[in-house]
Specification:
With about 60 residues, the protein is mainly alpha-helical. The protein has one domain. About 90% of the residues lie in helices and about 0% in strands. It starts with a helix and ends with a helix. The mean pLDDT is about 85.
Length: about 60
């Protein structure tokens, strides 16, 4: 019973709090804003990915010395 309530609380939090901005973007009629938001997320992902690769390369250099 308690576990069921916990999962319902998590689902409620995700639907009513975390996904509200995405629902607002989805319901817009402005195609340009929707795609701009998507490209911003893609760019942030690439920046994080290349930062991570740089850190791995730095760690590998320190390990080989």
């Amino acid at each position: 019973m308690i576990a069921n309530n916990i999962f319902k609380a998590i689902a409620d939090f995700c639907q009513n709090v975390l996904f509200v901005p995405f629902n607002n973007i989805r319901s817009m009629d402005n195609w340009w804003f929707q795609n701009t938001a998507s490209w911003i997320f893609v760019v942030i992902g690439f920046i994080g990915f290349f930062y991570w690769l740089g850190q791995l390369k730095k760690y590998q250099k320190e390990e080989n010395e």
